[in-house]
């Protein structure tokens, strides 16, 4: 009887160890966090990007999860701390994370124009008498986020170049998203908004009359494109794998179309570091200390 009990106990112990081993393996499964800034409804953005994350994960041989936050800075801080492994972020966010957390720019996105960048534009309603940047003096403006290149930094610099003091000559607010800015403009809650060149095409489904109701009054110089930024805590081998996987995935028309629809990205190429230095100069014009932005 004693031998039988010992045998049973031995079997139970073996199965228990096997179970623990399986759980341990599951826990050690590598999961990469992909960070994206909240350019639109955060929950919808995560849902829309999930098929892309799945395709990328299949190429990498590991799971990729999408992360966003309530602000651009939240995503930047995540990449800086290592809780987010890499991100698809606007160029100003890339420069911030480079400066503050020694992150690395792996790739830059090509826009629908084929260029590794895009333009900021200032929009007003077509029924408005505003014809130029100078006409915005005394008006209400919606910017997107203090860390948005097209939605604030470059547009704000254009206003300053036109002799407009942002703190004295206009009233402004941060909407928290390009779609939210457009909603404010269409509702006549503001007189103008700052956004990017393809925003009308991007949000035609949400706002069917956008093309008929809104016009552009100013356009910036070329801004570096959406940038793939790797956390300093992500090992070099995995960084290389992520970079290679993205270069391969751009040839998958169905998968890259997801990024085209969301961020106007049609492919990737090596980043030009000189282009990011231009952002630093624009930041100086906007009195932004890149080492202190929080």
Automatic annotation (TrEMBL):
<dbReference type="Pfam" id="PF12974">
    <property type="entry name" value="Phosphonate-bd"/>
</dbReference>
<dbReference type="GO" id="GO:0043190">
    <property type="term" value="C:ATP-binding cassette (ABC) transporter complex"/>
</dbReference>
<dbReference type="InterPro" id="IPR005770">
    <property type="entry name" value="PhnD"/>
</dbReference>
<feature type="domain" description="Solute-binding protein family 3/N-terminal">
    <location>
        <begin position="31"/>
        <end position="262"/>
    </location>
</feature>
<comment type="similarity">
    <text>Belongs to the phosphate/phosphite/phosphonate binding protein family.</text>
</comment>
<dbReference type="GO" id="GO:0055085">
    <property type="term" value="P:transmembrane transport"/>
</dbReference>
<dbReference type="InterPro" id="IPR001638">
    <property type="entry name" value="Solute-binding_3/MltF_N"/>
</dbReference>
<protein>
    <submittedName>
        <fullName>Phosphate/phosphite/phosphonate ABC transporter, periplasmic binding protein</fullName>
    </submittedName>
</protein>
<keyword id="KW-0732">Signal</keyword>
């Amino acid at each position: 009887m004693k031998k039988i009990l010992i045998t049973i106990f031995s079997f139970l112990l073996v199965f228990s160890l096997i179970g623990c081993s399986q759980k341990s393996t599951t826990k050690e499964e590598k999961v990469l966090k992909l960070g994206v800034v909240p350019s639109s409804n955060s929950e919808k953005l995560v849902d829309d990007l999930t098929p892309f994350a799945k395709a990328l994960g299949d190429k990498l041989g590991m799971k990729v999860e999408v992360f966003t936050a309530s602000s651009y800075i939240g995503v930047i801080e995540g990449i800086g701390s290592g809780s987010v492994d890499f991100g698809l972020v606007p160029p100003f966010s890339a420069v911030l994370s480079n400066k503050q957390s020694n992150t690395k720019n792996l790739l830059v996105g090509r826009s629908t124009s084929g260029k590794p960048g895009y333009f900021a534009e200032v929009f007003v309603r077509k029924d408005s008498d505003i014809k130029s940047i100078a006409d915005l003096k005394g008006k209400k403006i919606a910017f997107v986020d203090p860390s948005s290149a097209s939605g604030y930094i470059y547009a704000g610099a254009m206003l300053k170049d036109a002799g407009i003091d942002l703190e004295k000559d206009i009233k402004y607010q941060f909407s928290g998203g390009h779609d939210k800015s457009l909603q404010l403009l269409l509702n006549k809650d503001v007189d103008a908004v700052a956004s990017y060149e393809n925003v009308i095409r991007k949000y035609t489904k949400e706002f069917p009359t956008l093309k008929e109701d809104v016009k552009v009054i100013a356009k910036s110089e070329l801004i570096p494109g959406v940038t793939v930024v790797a956390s300093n805590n992500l090992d070099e081998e995995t960084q290389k794998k992520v970079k290679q996987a993205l270069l391969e995935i751009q040839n998958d028309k169905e998968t890259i179309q997801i990024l085209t629809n969301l961020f106007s990205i049609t492919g990737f190429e090596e980043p030009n570091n000189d282009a990011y230095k231009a952002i630093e100069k624009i930041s100086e014009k906007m009195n932004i200390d890149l080492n202190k932005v929080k």
